[in-house]
Amino acid sequence: MLILKPNCEACDRDLPPHATEAMICSYECTFCLDCVNSLLSNVCPNCGGGFTRRPVRPKTARREGVSLAFQPASTERVLTTKSDEEIKAFAAQIKAIAPWER
């Protein structure tokens, strides 16, 4: 089950569970759409993979026991330890390679 991290790991923007601008890689590294496009060039600075929109977990249990009320989002904020310069240099090396080819 997805953790649903509460923030962008680059700019620390709030990304609540219903945020449609939350993006994740296959390891659930979480960034906002603005950072994915402008800073990261669709390259995860942690794994080198690409990003996809994070699904929104339902607020209402339409099936018994399945909703944010039963599986709440994480409250632990995560921030990258890499500088903007390190992120841009890493992305520059592989951004021309399609994410599914990396």
Give a quick summary of the entry.
By secondary structure, the protein is of the alpha+beta class. It contains two helices and three strands, in the order ββαβα.
Q: Which tags fit this structure?
A:
elongated; alpha+beta; 102 residues
Task: Please give a structural write-up.
The chain has 102 residues and is an alpha+beta fold. The chain has one domain (22-95). The chain is built from 2 helices and 3 strands. The protein has helices at 33-38, 84-94; strands spanning 22-24, 30-32, 52-53. The longest helix is centred in the last third of the chain and has 11 residues, at 84-94. The two termini are 25 Å apart. The relative contact order is 0.23. The mean pLDDT is 97.
List the helices and strands and how they pair.
Layout: E1 22-24, E2 30-32, H1 33-38, E3 52-53, H2 84-94
Antiparallel strand pairs: 1-2, 1-3
Protein name: Urease
Domain RING-type: 8-47
Organism: Alteromonas lipolytica
